[in-house]
Here is the input.
Amino acid sequence: MKRYLWIIALFCLLLPGAITYCWFYTGPTRNAPPVLPNYSDIDFPRPVFSTEIPLPGSPQNPETVVLFDLQHQNQYSISEIDPLVRSIEAFGGEIKITSEQTNLETSLKSADVFLSVAPMMRFTQQEITLISDFVDRGGKLIVITDPTRNSMSAMPMGDTGASPVTTMLSGTDNANLLLEPYNIAFKDDYLYNLTENEGNFRNIFVTEFANDNLTRGIKKMVVYGGHSVTSSGIQIARTNGKTLSSTNEGNETFSVIDFVKYGEGSVLAIGDLSLITPEYVLSADNQIFVQNLAKYTTAAPRLKTLRDYPALFSGNVILQPTGNIEVTGELLSAVSNLESYLQLSPGNLTISKTERDSTSRIVLSTFTETKTTADILKQLKINLTPATDKDREETIEKTEPTASATPGSIIKPELTKEVPPIKVTPEYESTLQALFNNEDETQTGPEIIEVPYFDRVKTKELGLIGLTRSGNKITVIVMASSPAKIQTFIRNLSISGLSGCVIHEDLAACKVTDFAGPPQG
Here is the structure.
């Protein structure tokens, strides 16, 4: 009996395992090869890599200055945009870089282009105004952002002891603050295309271009993740209807590069940094865009105004005294300080009584018209012989009706005795000559002149600066009431610049002040 019980117990123990084995067992293993896709038939869309286009040799004397912004925690390095830097230098541009210690106002005076990439630090209102004035005077502003150029910021929670909250800052916020005066804005998005792309949905093709020098010779560009741009200007490069935005799923076109004209200058907004980086510059026609961008950057340096003083000149400059202004040791000392203040290289400033056709010049003159100053005064509309108040009163009196004189009202002039001639002794003549030659005491020219924007001005303590242009040639005229005052005025301009002057367009009116201390260069 006990034997049967053991058999039944063993059977109950093995039965569940047998059932499980029979349920899941599918028979002997078949060694059939796995079915794999035909990889040779799979073709990912990808751009055609172009051959590098050789650049021309850099000119010896760059004509334009491109100022790269690195004082707003910009998320890039100069080496990352080497293709653009090399192209700018090849087409005649000089690269300058800002830092946290840079005075932006001073740097912009010598610049033709200001370029800011992915700024993470907010621009102050003063900086925005300075850049806006710079563009209005003919400067070019280029702003580049990128969805991949963001920074992490830890926000402390005060004294609560809680962990700091980490937030993501986007470069579009600070860029849009800078671009607000020009009605341009980057969207905080990224563009993508699920059907036509270069191996990744965020690597989109751009094939729609405006007829512009920036797009000359371009048929296709590849944007490796970019922001879209909106403005009231020109859409330089835009997508087709199959490209979407991460913040807008509608089927519409999106611009990645916009151009806006502002005052005498222009603004360019680019929503992708990869276009100008070494990794992607050879994709499709990206390198053609880089060279077109460099040509746009270096073309036609902006015309300098008096607001750019002292950064008015580049290259050789002639200092041209006129009239009775003689080249003395005192004048040379004052000019030496002015040369340093104007940031001219040694040897670039020469003194000559004659001008050269293509060389810029600084003309020194009292308030008298000469052959050299006649045309300059005419362009600046400065009148050295205005009608006096007495002349104006006489003119008014002549226009008023008067009663006709009767024969009985004729008044006979009273006869006076003949005045004997004055006898001039040699001693008296030498005294007059000494007074005439004393430049500190003698004023040359009229006491009152008419100056546009300032009306009638007394010339005794007046210093005038005017700027005229003829092509790329700049003429700056420096005027004061006497040669000695001109020397003092030059020292003023070498110490405080135009800080104490009233500037209106191409004219500045200043007070000539004697300084007790030695001039500083």
About this structure: Residues 2-24 form the longest helix (23 residues). Residues 369 and 505 are 22 Å apart (CA to CA). Confidence is low (pLDDT under 50) at residues 402-441, 516-521. The chain is about 25% helix and 25% strand.
